[in-house]
Amino acid sequence: MKSKTPSVLHSAFLLVTLFFVGCASQPPKHPAYLHAISDLRTARWMLEHRPGDAAVAAHESEAVSEIDRAIHELTSAAVNDGKNVNNHPPADLPADYRGRLHKAADLLRTVRADTYREEDNPSSRGLRDRALGHIDAALHATERAIHDVEVGR
Q1: How many Å apart are CA 73 and CA 86, to the nearest integer?
Q2: I need a labelling partner for 115 at 20 to 30 A (CA). Which of 13, 93, 134, 138 fits?
Q3: pTM (2 d.p.)
Q4: Residue 27 gets which letter from DSSP?
Q5: Is 129:112 a contact under the CB 8 Å cutoff?
Q6: Can you tell me the distance from the alpha carbon of 94 to that of 144, in angstroms, rounded to the nearest whole number?
Q7: Beta-carbon contacts of residue 36 (< 8 Å; ≥ 6 apart)
Q8: How many whole angstroms separate alpha carbon 92 and alpha carbon 86?
Q9: What is the DSSP letter of 97?
Q10: Domains in the chain, start-ordered, CATH in brackets?
């Protein structure tokens, strides 16, 4: 009669291996933070590289400052979640100047949606909430710039 001990040990080993593989292959928490940072950098570039008048430039400058603050907060939150924040995917930039304010506003709305998610890490909640405040302020400044451009036409 054959002993069942080797098959029991083999099954136990297989179960433990599957457990550790399953733990290692879980998706990372909040991958949207890195995507949001990339979109913020793109929106920042669009705001800085758009020719315009002085009235609009003041709103653009305010938006860029708020974007910088949001990037700082989200970078800290991403580091807290163990993300590699030095990986910068290439930006998807329009070829011409037209529509950059609208594209920047669209990106800021996307960033807000990506960032406004449940935060499991208590030390990152304040960072996320402050980043959302900066994103909202940047979006409002960008919308004021769009309004000024449209009224000026």
Answers
A1: 15
A2: 93
A3: 0.70
A4: P
A5: no
A6: 21
A7: 74, 110, 111, 114, 115
A8: 18
A9: S
A10: 29-152 (1.20.1260)
